[in-house]
Amino acid sequence: MTVTIVGAQLGDEGKGGIVDVYGDAADIVVRYQGGDNAGHTVVHEGDEYKLSLVPSGAVRGKIGVLGNGCVVNPETLFDELSALRERGLDPDVRVARRAHVIMPYHRVLDGIEEEMKRESDDEIGTTGRGIGPTYEDKAGRRGIRVGDLLTPDVLRDRLERVVPEKRAVVEDVFGVDVETLDDPDALDTDAMYEHARAYGERLAGQTVNAGQFIADARDDGKQVMFEGAQGTIIDIDHGNYPYVTSSNPTAGGAAVGSGVSPGVVGEGTTLGIVKGYLTRVGSGPMPTELGGVEGDTPGYDEQGSGENEELATYIREEGGEYGTVTGRPRRVGWLDMPMLRHSARVNGFTGLAINHVDVLAGLDEVRVGHSYTLDGDERLTMPATTEQWGRCEANVRSFDGWAPFDSAAVAREGYEAIPANARAYLDYVSGELETPVYCVGVGPGREETVVTEAVW
Ligand code: IMP
User: Fold this and answer.
1) Residue 324 — pLDDT band, cuts 50, 70, 90?
2) Which among 11, 14, 9, 39 is positioned nearest to 335, based on CA atoms?
3) In whole angstroms, what is the distance from residue 46 CA to residue 44 CA?
4) What is the residue-wise DSSP string for 156-212?
5) Ligand 1 near 36 CB (within 6 A)
6) Is the CB of 127 under 6 A from ligand 1?
7) Is 62 in the pocket of ligand 1 (CB under 6 A)?
C-alpha cells in the first residue's frame, strides 16, 4: 500500500503537516522530485521543524529516501541532518545513487540567469538553489549523479568536461568575471573535484538503488509514503510554464522519480493537498490575486498593490504566508477552482486535505474563483498556455464567513464540529472536484487536523 501526497496548487499547501498527520503508519517516506527549494514545516510536540530536503517523516523516526527524481545539495542535506541530531533526533535518510547533485556552479548560474532576466522583467523568481540549472544538466546528459561522487575517476572525467563549459557560459555568454563572484571556486575544476569527492565520502554509507530499496521494503510488508514537493501548477509539464519549477510534482512523478511502477502509485491513495485560499511565490499570472507583491506580481509597477491589499495583508499575516526557504512575502488570492479542476484531473486525487481553514475564520465573506472568462467564453478549467491564463478573469462566488473557533476542540470532535459556513465551503470544493475530503487543517499542529478518513 502506498500514499502519495501532492500539492494541488502553487506549492506551500501544507504538505509537510499532512505527511505528519498520516505518516504514523508509514515506514518509509520518499521525496520523488525537487530539492532544497521545498520548505516543509512539521510541528511535533510543540516544536517546529522546517525541512527543505530531508523528508518530513524523519521527524517521527521514519526512514527517508531522496529518490532518483530529486536534485540533492549534499551541503543542505548534511546541515539539516546535523540540525535534527542537535535537537535529539536520529534521522535515517537514504539517497538514490541515480539522483543528481546540485553543484556550487548550479547555484551560481541560477543567480546569474535570474539577474539577467530581471533586467528585462522576465525573471521566474526562483529560490536561487540551483534547481533549474541542475535539471538542465540532467536533461543535457552532463549532470553529476550521486553515484558518480562515489567513483573518483568517473567524477574527475565528468567535471573536467562540465566545469570549463560552465566557466565559458558565465564569462562569454553572461559576461561575468568569475573572480568577482562570491564563490569563484565554483568554476574551478580542481576545487569542484575536491569538494565533490568529500561529499561522496560523507554520503557513501547512505546511498541506495532507490527503486530496488523501495521494492524490497514493500516485499517485506513495509508501507511507503511519497511526499511531493512544490505543486501541480508549478509542474514543468502541467504547470504555468515558464513560471514553474523544473521537475514533476504531479502524481506521475512519484513513479518516475522513485523507481516504482505507475501501478504501485495508482493502486494506493493519492491525496491532493489544497490550501483554503491561494498563495504564490515568484512571478506569473494569478487570476484570483487579491493584492500584489512588488517584484513578483506582473504589472505591479503600473497598477500598485490592488484594491484588496488590506485583505491580502490580513490573510498573509494570519496565515504566516512568508516563504519557508526564502522568507519572501507570498502573493495571496482566493481559491481558484479552474486550477483545482485541472489539478484533480492530472493527479487523479482519491482524497483531499484542505488546510488553513482557520486562517479564513473571522472574515465576513469568503470568495472563490468559480470559473474564468476568456475571450468572452466561460471556462471551468485552466487553459494550456500561460499567455491565455494571464488573460483569464475570475468569476467569483461568495460564501458567508465563519467566526474563529477552538481548533483543537473541533479536531477532537470531528467534521460536524466545524462551523456550518466553513463546511458549506468545504462541501462545495469537494463537490466541484468530485473528490471526498479526507482531512481538514484547522491549525498548524497535527492535533489541529480534523481527520475524516484513514488513508492506509
Ligand atoms: P526553482 O524551483 O527554485 O527553480 O523556482 C521556480 C519557481 O518555483 C519559482 O516561482 C519559485 O518561487 C517556485 N517554487 C519552487 N519551490 C517552491 C516551493 O516549495 N513552494 C512554492 N513555490 C516554489
Assistant:
1) confident
2) 9
3) 5
4) HHHHHHHHHHHHHIIIIIS---GGGSS-GGGG-HHHHHHHHHHHHHHHGGGEE-HHH
5) no
6) yes
7) no
List phi, psi (to 5°) of 235: -70, 140
* Cα–ligand 1 centroid distance for 425 (angstroms): 28
pLDDT of residue 42: 85
**Residue 361 pLDDT > 70, yes or no?**
yes
Q: Measured in angstroms, how far is the CA atom of residue 330 from the centroid of ligand 1?
A: 11
- Nearest atom in ligand 1 to the alpha carbon of residue 326 is 12
d(CA 154, CA 148): 6
Q: What are phi and psi of 420, to 5 degrees?
A: -55, -40
Q: According to the model, what pLDDT value does residue 91 have?
A: 96
What pLDDT is stored for residue 325 in this prediction? 74
* pLDDT surpassing 80 at residue 305: no
Average pLDDT, the chain: 95
DSSP structure class, residue 145: B
Atom of ligand 1 at shortest distance to CA of 284? 10
H-helix or E-strand spanning residue 271: strand 269-275
| pLDDT of 304 above 70 | no
Q: What is the pLDDT of residues 176-206, one digit of tens each?
A: 999 999 999 999 999 999 999 999 999 999 9
Q: What is the mean pLDDT of residues 161-166?
A: 98
Q: How far is CA 439 from CA 21, 62, 236, 356, 454, in A?
A: 9, 22, 28, 11, 9
Q: List, in order of start, the domains of the chain with CATH numbers.
A: 2-95+206-272 (3.40.440.10), 101-203 (1.10.300.10), 274-451 (3.90.170.10)
One of 20, 36, 40, 370 is an active-site residue; which one? 40
If 0-12 CB within 10 Å is exposed, 13-18 middle and 19+ buried, where does residue 288 land? buried
Using the structure block, give the residue that is written with the C-alpha cell 465551503. 425
Strand partners, 450: 440
Q: Which of 43, 69, 42 is nearest to 55 (CA)?
A: 42
